[in-house]
Amino acid sequence: MQTQVEDSAKPIVDPHDIDAKLVQKLANDALVWCSLRGLLVGDRNSERSGTVPGVDMVHAPVALIPMSFPESHWKQACEVAPIFNELVDRVSQDGEFLQQSLSRTRKVDPFTSRLLEIHSKMLEINTIEEIRLGLHRSDYMLDEQTKLLLQIELNTISSSFPGLSCLVSELHRSLLQQYREDIASDPNRIPANNAVNQFAEALAKAWNEYGDPRAVIMFVVQAEERNMYDQHWLSASLRERHQVTTIRKTLAEIDALGELQQDGTLVVDGQAVAVIYFRAGYAPSDYHSESEWKARLLMEQSRAVKCPSISYHLAGSKKIQQELAKPNVLERFLENKDDIAKLRKCFAGLWSLDESDIVKDAIDRPELYVMKPQREGGGNNIYGEDVRDALLKLQKEGTGSDAAYILMQRIFPKISHSILMREGISHKEQTISELGIYGTYLRNKTEVLINQQAGYLMRTKVSSSNEGGVAAGFAVLDSIYLV
Amino acid sequence: MQTQVEDSAKPIVDPHDIDAKLVQKLANDALVWCSLRGLLVGDRNSERSGTVPGVDMVHAPVALIPMSFPESHWKQACEVAPIFNELVDRVSQDGEFLQQSLSRTRKVDPFTSRLLEIHSKMLEINTIEEIRLGLHRSDYMLDEQTKLLLQIELNTISSSFPGLSCLVSELHRSLLQQYREDIASDPNRIPANNAVNQFAEALAKAWNEYGDPRAVIMFVVQAEERNMYDQHWLSASLRERHQVTTIRKTLAEIDALGELQQDGTLVVDGQAVAVIYFRAGYAPSDYHSESEWKARLLMEQSRAVKCPSISYHLAGSKKIQQELAKPNVLERFLENKDDIAKLRKCFAGLWSLDESDIVKDAIDRPELYVMKPQREGGGNNIYGEDVRDALLKLQKEGTGSDAAYILMQRIFPKISHSILMREGISHKEQTISELGIYGTYLRNKTEVLINQQAGYLMRTKVSSSNEGGVAAGFAVLDSIYLV
């Protein structure tokens, strides 16, 4: 039962069909739009741009024209979002499954090991988290060969770009509207994207469930953050639509300024915290010293709503993704057979390195696999010949450090032509794209208050680049045009 | 009949009463607000920022807290705006008055001379301009000694900041709202500021009167413009609210790409132009060669609506301001005695340099005068001891070049305390402020379609700086808080 990519699916316009003068006009208008509407990032060429707002700003890297995407696959991706939300919540409640599945990984990956240590402590303390908030993003690529929508990963912590992605959809709709005589298209075929307000709504509702009108929402941030405007849009929505105050603190600041009151209330810098929203803490590099780990544990032990809690965080790890792809594992967490079938349909091939047949095949045909470490944040995957070398090296060492990796079927998405805007300059490029679907989930005790798809993020990157991170400089923000 | 400044008038909060931590929070929130809402300028430290949108942007320099301003003077300034609009239109129709008043200036100021040359040609050709569009800004200071609102100058060309000034009012209202528990104030005491949409409405109505739905509005711009976002906001309003397309051209480009059709239609780069909006061409430095003067003449001869026409431009010159301040001159243009009295009440002392008693007094007491050249754009006025030196030098030369200047009563505004934000840093400063009131005027034949006050611009500068230009780097954008 594969959903076929319609053969009629064509990009809304081939960049080669746009004459240079029109590209220049479009590019200029796009740059102006980004500037006036806050589609911005800190300039990487500046030292201050990651710490001081309002200085050394540059438009976010964006595609000039939205990327065509089959409507059937769009619907499929939207449909599974609430099921993945549900799955994460169920998996997170199964402490034994998390600990067992990650037991080999913990031995070789110090980062996972520290997370599991906190998780164990929480199991010991055995306080029930009544309010559970998930702001996830499930990332997909469309495999050109099988015409299947395949999941790359499920982010349960620090899902980025809810703020800027909405703006890109608006930018593209505005350009198509303005140039409707030059580019035959229908701006309404760009799906509405309200990620920032849906994220804000979920955070505000969690804040409301917590029930202290004087308490704030705390954003846990990196000390240097060039993507700060994406986060500021979320704060702006919380303030303007929900009258909720946000504060921004680094893990080190939380360690220095945070304390738990007797009833478990987290107070940071004199302010009670209702909801902790992590935009840092997902990568080993965020933990410079014991101080940051102390802060993480402090927060986890508090009665503040954690987005995510340590168990939600672990449920999104690559090893768990791989475990869930094994036969009969989804059935442990979900009852509905249809739901299970829908999720399984998006699973790419995923294997641990103790599956010797697969490892052998990957050494023979490394181009068909990606080797993924547990670490998050992009930029760490292994591709091509390097897969063979890495596997052979691990076999020789034989220390069990193969547990730090999983193998994944390599997906070959369609190659398109795009015009990418970066630092004020347009480039025509051969590109591939990755679609992220945001999901919001909120539960208080047994009552599910929110469980929905919540906007999307399209990222388009030069096809010769293996890695997908926008912040890492290889990709641009995009939107989709349904065909 | 002087309107007294209420003695109860106090700044909404003395910056010395705000503790450092609150200043830091306010400053940070102000910087974020500017970034997300497009209150931006090109960074002066960058070469590209004046030519490429979307790169090297920095928040516009702004005051952190709005400046207190007496409500009675605010009302007075608003009330005279339509009368000044009317006056400019009447003066502009009196070609003889303009030519005669500027006859001595023309001999010594080459710039005025070139403008008058074009004006003479237009008088010869004697085509009647049916559609007349004025987008003016009348600038005032409150004289501390006399408690009078006195006009500094009336700008009839390139009145800047209609776009950004609205945003500053919004920024301040947002901050007062957000920090209402820390700063006792009423955000609604910041008057509504809709300058950008009122300017756009006037431009769009003029475009509509012109009557060619395929024609565009052309912004005449400088090749390098770090204040481009102010202008882009106006274009955005025209496009989004009125579906009118704007193009941007330098004078040199207009000379190269522009032509007049037989019926007087101006076509630039293949596009018919309905309205010409000047954001360049007001200063000698905008005319690098004969090419720019040819462009100016070409536009003036066209049937496009000029904002401003050459006669509106001349009507705003300092020499004309000084002539209008002479006894019985206003009566030549206006009938209503009340209106005349209202205008006269805002006139500071203004004299030509052939009034020997005044020149003698200015040499004796130079601190009470400002010497102003005909040139526009800020940065050219003479103050203090330099007034004496300049006057003595002119007397010695005796070449008639004194006609290039006028003398104006020096106004001593109240000194306040402000927190100014520049390049991401806040500074507490002693400051003085200047209030600009925008006016929009549109007439087609005998029908006046628009004549109104249209928002405002408050500029606050360090009191030790004599010059007032925001773009020149001495001042910041501000808004007013009525007391």
UniProtKB/TrEMBL annotation, chains A, B:
<feature type="binding site">
    <location>
        <begin position="225"/>
        <end position="227"/>
    </location>
    <ligand>
        <name>substrate</name>
    </ligand>
</feature>
<feature type="binding site">
    <location>
        <position position="434"/>
    </location>
    <ligand>
        <name>Mg(2+) 1</name>
    </ligand>
</feature>
<feature type="binding site">
    <location>
        <position position="381"/>
    </location>
    <ligand>
        <name>ADP</name>
    </ligand>
</feature>
<keyword id="KW-0317">Glutathione biosynthesis</keyword>
<feature type="domain" description="Glutathione synthase substrate-binding">
    <location>
        <begin position="215"/>
        <end position="315"/>
    </location>
</feature>
<feature type="binding site">
    <location>
        <begin position="470"/>
        <end position="471"/>
    </location>
    <ligand>
        <name>substrate</name>
    </ligand>
</feature>
<dbReference type="InterPro" id="IPR037013">
    <property type="entry name" value="GSH-S_sub-bd_sf"/>
</dbReference>
<feature type="binding site">
    <location>
        <position position="383"/>
    </location>
    <ligand>
        <name>ATP</name>
    </ligand>
</feature>
<feature type="binding site">
    <location>
        <position position="408"/>
    </location>
    <ligand>
        <name>ADP</name>
    </ligand>
</feature>
<feature type="binding site">
    <location>
        <position position="231"/>
    </location>
    <ligand>
        <name>substrate</name>
    </ligand>
</feature>
<keyword id="KW-0547">Nucleotide-binding</keyword>
<feature type="binding site">
    <location>
        <position position="153"/>
    </location>
    <ligand>
        <name>ATP</name>
    </ligand>
</feature>
<keyword id="KW-0460">Magnesium</keyword>
<feature type="binding site">
    <location>
        <position position="461"/>
    </location>
    <ligand>
        <name>ADP</name>
    </ligand>
</feature>
<dbReference type="Pfam" id="PF03199">
    <property type="entry name" value="GSH_synthase"/>
</dbReference>
<keyword id="KW-0479">Metal-binding</keyword>
<feature type="binding site">
    <location>
        <position position="372"/>
    </location>
    <ligand>
        <name>ADP</name>
    </ligand>
</feature>
<dbReference type="InterPro" id="IPR014709">
    <property type="entry name" value="Glutathione_synthase_C_euk"/>
</dbReference>
<dbReference type="InterPro" id="IPR016185">
    <property type="entry name" value="PreATP-grasp_dom_sf"/>
</dbReference>
<feature type="binding site">
    <location>
        <position position="137"/>
    </location>
    <ligand>
        <name>substrate</name>
    </ligand>
</feature>
<keyword id="KW-0436">Ligase</keyword>
<feature type="binding site">
    <location>
        <position position="409"/>
    </location>
    <ligand>
        <name>ADP</name>
    </ligand>
</feature>
<feature type="binding site">
    <location>
        <position position="153"/>
    </location>
    <ligand>
        <name>Mg(2+) 1</name>
    </ligand>
</feature>
<feature type="binding site">
    <location>
        <begin position="408"/>
        <end position="411"/>
    </location>
    <ligand>
        <name>ATP</name>
    </ligand>
</feature>
<feature type="binding site">
    <location>
        <begin position="372"/>
        <end position="381"/>
    </location>
    <ligand>
        <name>ATP</name>
    </ligand>
</feature>
<comment type="similarity">
    <text>Belongs to the eukaryotic GSH synthase family.</text>
</comment>
<feature type="binding site">
    <location>
        <position position="411"/>
    </location>
    <ligand>
        <name>ADP</name>
    </ligand>
</feature>
<feature type="binding site">
    <location>
        <position position="318"/>
    </location>
    <ligand>
        <name>ATP</name>
    </ligand>
</feature>
<dbReference type="GO" id="GO:0009507">
    <property type="term" value="C:chloroplast"/>
</dbReference>
<feature type="binding site">
    <location>
        <position position="434"/>
    </location>
    <ligand>
        <name>ADP</name>
    </ligand>
</feature>
<comment type="pathway">
    <text>Sulfur metabolism; glutathione biosynthesis; glutathione from L-cysteine and L-glutamate: step 2/2.</text>
</comment>
<dbReference type="GO" id="GO:0043295">
    <property type="term" value="F:glutathione binding"/>
</dbReference>
<dbReference type="GO" id="GO:0005829">
    <property type="term" value="C:cytosol"/>
</dbReference>
<dbReference type="Pfam" id="PF03917">
    <property type="entry name" value="GSH_synth_ATP"/>
</dbReference>
<keyword id="KW-0150">Chloroplast</keyword>
<feature type="binding site">
    <location>
        <position position="139"/>
    </location>
    <ligand>
        <name>Mg(2+) 1</name>
    </ligand>
</feature>
<feature type="binding site">
    <location>
        <position position="459"/>
    </location>
    <ligand>
        <name>substrate</name>
    </ligand>
</feature>
<feature type="binding site">
    <location>
        <position position="467"/>
    </location>
    <ligand>
        <name>ATP</name>
    </ligand>
</feature>
<protein>
    <recommendedName>
        <fullName>Glutathione synthetase</fullName>
        <ecNumber>6.3.2.3</ecNumber>
    </recommendedName>
</protein>
<comment type="subunit">
    <text>Homodimer.</text>
</comment>
<dbReference type="InterPro" id="IPR005615">
    <property type="entry name" value="Glutathione_synthase"/>
</dbReference>
<keyword id="KW-0067">ATP-binding</keyword>
